[in-house]
Amino acid sequence: MDIAMDQAKVLRELLAISYEKRLAITADDVDELRRCSELELELVGRLNVLTKRGGEPTPEVLELARELKARNRMNDDLISAHLEYVNTMVAMLTMDSDPLSNYYTQRGTLTESPLARSAAFDVSV
How far apart are CA 57 and CA 115, in angstroms? Predict the structure, then answer.
C-alpha cells in the first residue's frame, strides 16, 4: 500500500505542476514553463520508479492519472494554439506562404500578387 500512496502523492504533485504550467502558457512565461517542464520530468522519473516496483494501482491512483491526462491534453492544446498563432504572425510579417498574397486570374490560374514579397521583415537576413 505504501507504493500506491507514494504514486498518489507524485500524481498530486504532477497535477499541481500541470496547473502552474497552464498559467505559464497563458501568461507567455517561457521561463516558468521551462521550470515546470523540468520539475515535471523529475516527477515522472520518480513515478516510473514507483510503477516498476509493482503492485496494483488503487482507484485513487487511476483517477489521479485520468485527471492528469486530461490536464496534459488541455495544456498541449494551449501550446499548439499559441504556436499556431506565432507561426501565423511570422508568416504574415514575412509574407511567407500567405494565402492572401495569391489570387486567381480571369482564366482561373493561380498567380502571386506583385505585392506578395513586400514583407515587413525579410527572413533571409
Answer: 62
